[in-house]
Amino acid sequence: MLEPLEEKRYVLNLGPQHPATHGVLRVELEMEGEFIVKADPDIGYGHRAHEHMAENRNYLQFLPNMGRVDYLHALAYNQGYCMAVEKLIGLQVPERAEYIRVITSELNRISSHLLWFGAFLMDLGAFTPFLYCFDDRENILDLLDRVTGSRLTYCYYRFGGVPQDIDQEFIDGCRAFVKRLRGRWKDYDNLVTKNIIFIERTKGIGVITKEQCMLYGLTGPMVRGSGIPYDIRKKEPYSAYPQFDFEIPVGENGDTMDRYLVRLREMEQSLRIIEQALDKLPNGPIMAEKVPKRIKPAAGEVYAAVEAARGEFGCYIVSQGDVKPYRIKLRVPSYANLSILPEIAVDTLVADLVAILGSIDVVVPEIDR
Amino acid sequence: MDATIFGSDLVRMIIGLIGVIALVSVNALFLIWMERKVAAHIQLRPGPMEVGWHGSIQTIADALKLMGKELITPDDVDKPVYWLAPIVIFLPVLLSFLVIPFAPGLVIRDMNVGVLLILSFAALTVLAILMAGWSSNNKYAVLGSIRSVAQNVAYEIPLLITVMSIILMVGSFSLVDIVKAQEKYWFILLQPLAFILYITCATAETNRAPFDLPEAESELVAGFHTEYSGMRFALFFLAEYTNMFIVSALATVFFLGGWRGPFLPGWAWFFIKVYAMIFLIMWFRWTFPRVRFDQLITFAWKILIPLAFANLLLTAFLMKLF
After folding, report:
1. B249 within a domain of the structure (yes/no)
2. Which residue of chain A is at minimal alpha-carbon distance from B147?
3. Domain count along chain B
4. Residue B309 sits in which domain range?
5. How far apart are CA A126 and CA B256, in angstroms?
6. Pairing, β A26-32 against β A10-14
7. Is B293 on the interface with A (CB under 8 A)?
8. What is the pTM for the complete model shown?
9. Per the CB 3.0–4.6 Å rule, which of A272, B125, B155, B166 could disulfide with B204?
10. Is B26 a domain residue?
11. pLDDT tens digits along B165-206
C-alpha cells in the first residue's frame, strides 16, 4: 500500500551548529529521502542590535561597530559608514587618503574571497585548499595589521581620511604579495577549477536567473555570476575607483560554478587595482582639514553605498541635528543574498544545498546585525 | 591427527590471533599518525610535533584520552543494537587477517577460498554501519548509513568482478597462490585497468574520500557515528584504518607481487608495498573534493561495472588465446 507523499517527508535541521553553516545559521529542511522539498533559513541566533546601538552612541563611537558587522570585509563597511557621515557633514577626503582606502579595502576584499574559497571547497569536502588559502591570506593579515593595527575587526578609516599613513615597507609588501598571489592562480586552477569532481559538483547547481536576481535584490558576485555586470565601483563610482582600469567579471549560467569563477577573477581584478593605486599613489595629507571635534550634523538624510565582497553595502543615516544619529539602517548584502535560498534549494540534494550555501557566501553576523 | 591439531595448528592459530590483534592496534596507531603527517605536509604545515619525536606518540595520547571519555548513550537509542554495532564492525576486520600472506610461510591459515572469505567479511561492515545508523535514532546517522549501504553494495560488484579477472589468471582463490603466480610479472603490468578499478572500488569500500559520503562532515556532521563517543567511536575509527590496511594488503597481493622483491626480506617488502598503497589512498583524500551521492552511484553502475565486465571478458579471451 502506498503512503500519502506527505508522510514520507521529514524535517532535517541544518544548524544552528553544523559544519556547513559557517556560523549560527539554521536551515530547516523538509526532505523526501535525500531530496529537499522545502528549505527555510532561520536567522537571528547571533543578533547584536547594531542598528539600535547606533541610536545610543555618537557618530564616532559607532565606528568600531562597523568592523564587526561583516568581519571578513570590515574595511568596506568602515568605508560605507565613513562616506555616509562625510556626506552628511560635507567633508572632502584628500586624494592620498582615498588611495589608501582603496588599497586596503581591496586587500581586504581579496582576503575575504580567499577565505570564501577555502571554506567553499571545505564544504565540498576538499580540505587542503583551505590551508593553501590561509597561507596566502596570512600575508594580507600581516600587511593590514601593519597599517591598521588589527588583524580581523578593522577600525581604520576615520571621518575625513585615515589616521595613519602607509610606509614604504607596506608598499613593498603589497607588491610582493601581488606577485605571490599571481603565481598561485595556476595552483588553484590545477587543484580545483580543472578537477572533474569539482566541476561535476558545481556545474548547473543552484542556477539563478537574471529575473530572480532582480526580484530578490541580489548584489555582488551572486548577481554577476548570473551575467549582470552590477558593481557599485563602476555603476556609482566612489572614492578613487574611477581612476583605475579594471573589469567586472561576469558569469553566463548563474550556477555555482559561475559564482566561483566570478570571485576567482575578482581577486585578479583587485590585484590590478592595488597595483595601479600603488603606482599612482599621490603625496599629500591623509586627513581632511577642519574635521569637527564634535560631529553634530544638521537634520537630514543620507545614503552611501560601497561594493563589499558580498555585494552592495549601503548605509542610510537619518540625522535630526543631534550628536547621535536618529536612525541608521544598514543595507547588508548577505541578507538579501540568502533570501533566494528557499527558491533555488528546492529539488536539490543535501550535498547540493551545502554547495549552494557555500556559493552564496553568507556571513551570518552580517545577517544578524 | 590430534597431535597435529594441538602441536601445530591450534598453537599456530592462537599465536596468529594474538599477532593479528597486536598488528591491528599498532598499525592503527601508526596509520593515524601517518595520516596526520601526510595531511599536514600536503597542507604545508608540520602536523603533530609535541608528543614524542615529531609527534610520534601523539596517537597513543589520543587513544588514552578516548578511553577515559564517557560512553554516552542517548536516551532514545535502540540499546542492544547500539552497543553491538562497534563490535560488529570490528570483528570481521580482525578475521580478514587470517588469510593475508605477509611473507612466504607467514600466513595464519592458507585457505583455498581466501579471497571469498575476505570479500564476504568486508561485506559485513555494511551491516554494522546500518546497525549503528539505525539504532542511533538520529537523522544524520540514518542518512549516513543508508548512503553507506547503497555505496557498498554498488561498489562491491565491480570489486568482485575485477578480482575475478585476477583469479581467472591464477586459477585459485588462495592468496598464497596468487602471490606465487606473480613470479615473472606483477599483475599490475598485465592488468593495469583492473588495478585502477580496484583502487577506485577499494577507496569507496573503505568509505575514504572522495567517496566518504557516509561520514561527509559538511553535510551529515559525522554520518553514522554521530552519536558515538569514547572507545565506541574509537572502534569505528580503528575499523576504518584497519580496513584501509586490508584493501591495501589485497592490492599488494593481487597486483604488486605480494612479498616479492630483491634484497629485503619478504615481510619488509610486503609492508613497504602496503604502506605505499595506503599513502596513495591518503593522497586522494587530501586532494579531491567529495563526489555527490547520485554521481557516486551512477559512476559505479554505469562506468565501473561495464569496465570491470569488459576487463573480465578480455582477460578470459586472452587466457583462451594463449
Report:
1. yes
2. A34
3. 1
4. 77-321
5. 29
6. antiparallel
7. yes
8. 0.83
9. B155
10. no
11. 888 888 888 887 788 777 777 877 778 888 888 888 888 877
